[in-house]
Amino acid sequence: MSGTSSVLNPPADAVAPVRHPDAPAPGELLGTHYEHCFGCGGGQEHGLHLAARAGEGVSVTAEFTVRAAHQGAPGLAHGGILATALDETLGSLHWVLRTIAVTGRLETDFLLPVPVDTVLYLEAEVTAVHGRKIYCTATGRLGGPDGDVAVRADALFIEVKVDHFIDNGRPEEIRAAMEDPDQVRRARAFEVNP
Ligand SMILES: CCCCCCCCCCCCCC(=O)SCCNC(=O)CCNC(=O)[C@H](O)C(C)(C)COP(=O)(O)OP(=O)(O)OC[C@H]1O[C@@H](n2cnc3c(N)ncnc32)[C@H](O)[C@@H]1OP(=O)(O)O
């Protein structure tokens, strides 16, 4: 889209993304990557509780119901919350790539106001990969998966090793996550499966 920074345009030698052979089947619910994640975790009372599903190719779909706790203007979703919903949906793509990655850059367009109690129907896909750089795009629609686009984003995610979290996270949470065998198994599986 015009207005998107040139750093979000994949270089000429970028390659098409490849769906990992062990990616969840299209339609499968992805679940949370971390119980206390504000985007998808069940342990965050006012979090987004965003539910994402694997899509075809290297894509995902997700739904987010805007609640009163997510307001900016009266009765309307806060823009930062909508950016978070886009970021979380884009982050879910990495279940399909089976790569751990973090957001390096996220550029968002806010096209329509999003009222409290509405469902935002989100969709994201990886468009290209260049080394550790993962180029992706997302939309959020109102009224249904084919409804009007209310928000959209282009983003660059950067692949990292699990050490990114171990080295930079707060020791209490890292220790708790590392004591959760499911969390460790999941993180390691992402690292060892090319
Ligand atoms: C316990 C385990 C749990 C696991 C849970 C899974 C969590 C999932 C969470 C999901 C939650 C939802 C998601 C979230 O919210 S993720 C949370 C929000 N994001 C972050 O916290 C990331 C913070 N940033 C960093 O840690 C570093 O800057 C990273 C790791 C991103 C890069 O630093 P690193 O030292 O590693 O790499 P590099 O600097 O050599 O750069 C490498 C290449 O990338 C290019 N580049 C970099 N940045 C930008 C930029 N801004 N624009 C354009 N380009 C950029 C750079 O030019 C270079 O290109 P090239 O020279 O190679 O061509």
TrEMBL record:
SUPFAM superfamilies tied to this protein: Thioesterase/thiol ester dehydrase-isomerase
Membrane topology: Peripheral membrane protein
Disordered: annotated span: 1-24
Keywords linked to the UniProt accession: Apoptosis, Cell membrane, Cell projection, Cytoplasm, Fatty acid metabolism, Hydrolase, Lipid metabolism, Membrane, Transit peptide
Biological process terms in GO annotation: fatty acid metabolic process
Family annotation (InterPro entries): HotDog_dom_sf (IPR029069), THEM4/THEM5_acyl-CoA_thioest (IPR052365), Thioestr_dom (IPR006683)
A Gene Ontology term for the protein's cellular component: cytoplasm
Enzyme class: hydrolase
GO molecular function: hydrolase activity
Domain annotation Thioesterase: ranges: 75-140
Enzyme Commission (EC) number: 3.1.2.2
Gene3D superfamilies xref list: Hotdog Thioesterase (3.10.129.10)
Catalytic activity: hexadecanoyl-CoA + H2O = hexadecanoate + CoA + H(+); dodecanoyl-CoA + H2O = dodecanoate + CoA + H(+); (5Z,8Z,11Z,14Z)-eicosatetraenoyl-CoA + H2O = (5Z,8Z,11Z,14Z)-eicosatetraenoate + CoA + H(+); octanoyl-CoA + H2O = octanoate + CoA + H(+)
UniProt KW Chloroplast keyword: no
Compartment(s) where it occurs, according to its Swiss-Prot or TrEMBL record: Cell projection, Ruffle membrane; Cytoplasm; Membrane
CDD domains: PaaI_thioesterase (cd03443)
Pfam families recorded: 4HBT
Family, per entry: Belongs to the THEM4/THEM5 thioesterase family.
Protein name as it appears in the record: Acyl-coenzyme A thioesterase THEM4
